[in-house]
Amino acid sequence: MNVFGCQFDIRWEDKAWNYQTVTRMVHELRPPSGALVALPEMFATGFSMNVDSVAELPEGPTTQFLGRIATENHIWLVAGVVTRQGAEQPGNRSIVFNPQGQRVAEYTKMRPFTPGGEDKHYRAGEHPAMFMWQGVSVALAICYDLRFPELFRAPLALGEQPELFVVIASWPETRATHWVRLLQARAIENQAYVLGVNRTGTDPLYRYPGRSVFINPQGDIVSDAGALPGWVSGKLEINELLRYREGLPFLKDFRSS
User: What's the mean pLDDT in 79-93?
Assistant: First the structure.
């Protein structure tokens, strides 16, 4: 079961250029049919607070583009998009498409980045979101969510124990060490694989380190994309994961309160 994370230098609020970049990168990668591919937070615009420039309707051009890429490449696709319905405050979202181009899951970031003013422009999500991929439960998270371990335990409180967490981000270079260590912590404490997908390059405010990583349930970094545009990849060994959980079933002692 193959997973891939695409990191690149997102051009600021230039959707057409970013669409072209993703199209080229996925074409060059040639992921196997049925693979899961993830793009960074707000991949089409960068981490912008210019709501009027970046927000779209749920069936806007970015979601149409993602559905087409998923279909053309026969992949499951996770990506960050800003959408809103009517006059509501938009949400910073992670959405998922299956190989038929159908939207199968959507998650709204539950912890907007208040130090950067995100909470003033985007509404916070209220619920975790998961989907099934080839028999594997996958949970979604976005950037600043990573600092709140209770969000990663929320599926467990609902009776779900995801085998994979996909965290998409625009995580700045100044806190790159935190990014990697927190991803490792979330893997260890949830006995799950973690795919963290960050961006590279710069925007008007920040520089970004890349460092997209695939981490196993013991917290080991299996694959690291480094600092340049490119890919991180990994493979889920589900039987090995189940044996590990059976040998150390400490999540059975979880209490929601």
Answer: 90
Tens digits of per-residue pLDDT, 136-167?
A: 999 999 999 999 999 999 999 888 999 999 99
How many CA atoms does the CB half-sphere of 130 hold within 13 Å? 21
* CA 219 to chain CA mean position, Å: 18
The catalytically annotated residue of 6, 56, 143, 163 is 143
Active site residue 15: no
Does residue 41 have an active-site annotation? yes
Are the C-beta atoms of 10 and 237 separated by less than 8 Å? Answer: no
Exactly one of 6, 56, 109, 118 is catalytic; which is it?
Answer: 109
Pairing assessment for the beta strands 193-197 and 164-168 based on DSSP bridges: parallel
What pLDDT, in 10s, does the model give residues 160-202?
Answer: 999 999 999 999 999 999 999 999 999 999 999 999 999 999 9
First and final C-alpha spacing in the chain: 35
Q: Which of 15, 41, 118, 163 is labelled catalytic? A: 41
Q: Is the dihedral of CA 224, 93, 134, 59 positive or negative?
A: negative
CB 9 within 8 A of CB 200: yes
Closest alpha carbon to 50 in 15, 100, 85: 15
Q: How far apart are CA 9 and CA 138, in angstroms?
A: 26
pTM for the whole structure: 0.96
Which residue's structure tokens are 């090995």?
240
